[in-house]
Amino acid sequence: MTTGQIDPRYGDATATAPPWADVERLLTDAQLYWITTVRADGRPHAVPLVGVWHDGAFAFCTGADEQKARNLDGNPHVAVTTGSTGAHGWDSGRDVVVEGVAVRVTDPGELQVLADAWYAKYGEDWHFAVRGDEFVELSSSGGATGGGARVYRVPPDKVLLFGGPHGQTRYRP
């Protein structure tokens, strides 16, 4: 990503934009994200989910019958958000928005790398194996617990960071 550009309309134009490494750390360390997809009729659909920031992109999974998957079949544009503002107040936390196009991951080798990343981050709570071109969740005994989940990566087209004296900072590849 390039150096962040502070939007002077929403913050102190003399502030220093946080380095991209700080933004990536927020994306990597987050435990929960929100994803917004677009329904066929144009309405937004926003839900919380787990995921991993890996190799410069956000990765998530969803069942083929879930609303997210149906939305992505028609329109792959998404916004992914995470942050720490919450109850801490707007001036003490950091919130991140990643905008991009969700691309389905089907290569077994790439899927295994992502399954390993999920396990490293979440442990047994989100332990996946690769079956064909999907994830299957594993039980603590190692057996599959249900149907498959499609895996997607969202390389960022634009990232916005909110909070602190910089207010709003934009990063682009």
Automatic annotation (TrEMBL):
Keyword Coiled coil assigned: no
Pyridoxamine 5'-phosphate oxidase N-terminal domain: residues covered: 23-126
Keywords, in A-Z order: Oxidoreductase
Pfam families: PNPOx_N
Protein name (database record): Pyridoxamine 5'-phosphate oxidase family protein
Biological source species: Geodermatophilus arenarius
